[in-house]
Design brief:
Layout (H helix, E strand, L loop, with lengths): L18 E7 L2 E6 L5 E3 L7
Antiparallel strand pairs: 1-2, 2-3
Length: about 50
């Protein structure tokens, strides 16, 4: 499992723990799931 020091260490869509950095969006680090290719932001409060 990758540890980013966040409350998010899993993909919000599929629950996979394999995330990689994928740029920055609105000033927050963005992550991409290696399994489902979904994207997540750190401290993301958006619905799934």
């Amino acid at each position: 499992m990758l540890e980013f020091g966040l409350d998010m260490a899993k993909c919000r869509r599929c629950g996979c723990e394999e995330l990689c950095k994928d740029g920055v969006a609105k000033g927050k680090q963005r992550y991409k799931c290696k399994q489902c290719k979904g994207t997540n932001r750190e401290n993301d409060k958006r619905p799934k």
